[in-house]
Specification:
Number of helices: 4
Strand content: 25-35%
Number of strands: 5
Low-confidence stretches: 17-34
Structural class: alpha+beta
Shape: globular
Distance between the termini: 100 Å
């Protein structure tokens, strides 16, 4: 009589253990399929982020300050190259580019360092130069500057500038 209960309890132990394993496996599968494990969007490449400057530079060539300002987020901060005034809204950014674009700027990167921080933010920093044309005389000048662009990917998938700092090189 002692043998029968042992045999049943071994069987019960095996069935119970198997049930726990199956339940754990199913539970893990459901857990991993939940909303917290949605596939993440691909991280931008350094080349893609560096290429955002090309879009910005091409937009300068349109001569339209509104189009340039549209590349900036609504709450962007612009610390511009040839103005002492910090711009913190769309109207201020448009105002800066109205004056800057009068000089027909053509930008060229000299050194660039890109850090992709995560799927939605990146920093492009380095040195660039602008060839400017004086609207009165037609004389050309070159301004060499340090820059930092901080980009954020917006909900619509577009990358916008949230912070842009540009300052003339101290050595000229």
């Amino acid at each position: 009589m002692n043998r029968r209960p042992r045999s049943i309890s071994k069987r019960a132990l095996v069935i119970g253990t198997a049930s726990l394993v199956v339940a754990g496996t199913v539970g893990a599968g459901v857990s991993f399929a939940g909303p917290e494990h949605k596939p993440q969007p691909k991280r931008a490449t350094k080349a893609q982020i560096a290429g955002l400057f090309d879009t910005w530079n091409a937009t300068l060539k349109t001569g339209d300050p509104e189009k340039v300002a549209d590349l900036y987020a609504k709450n962007a901060v612009l610390l511009p190259t040839v103005s002492n005034k910090i711009r913190t809204d769309h109207a201020g950014i448009v105002d800066y580019f109205e004056h800057f674009l009068a000089n027909k700027p053509v930008g060229k990167k000299i050194t660039t360092i890109v850090n992709v921080l995560d799927n939605n933010s990146a920093i492009d920093t380095g040195v660039y130069q602008f060839t400017l044309t004086d609207p009165k005389t037609g004389a050309k000048s070159v301004v060499k500057a340090r820059y930092t662009y901080e980009y954020e990917k917006q909900r619509d998938g577009d990358w916008k500038i949230v912070n842009h700092h540009s300052s003339k090189m101290p050595e000229g």
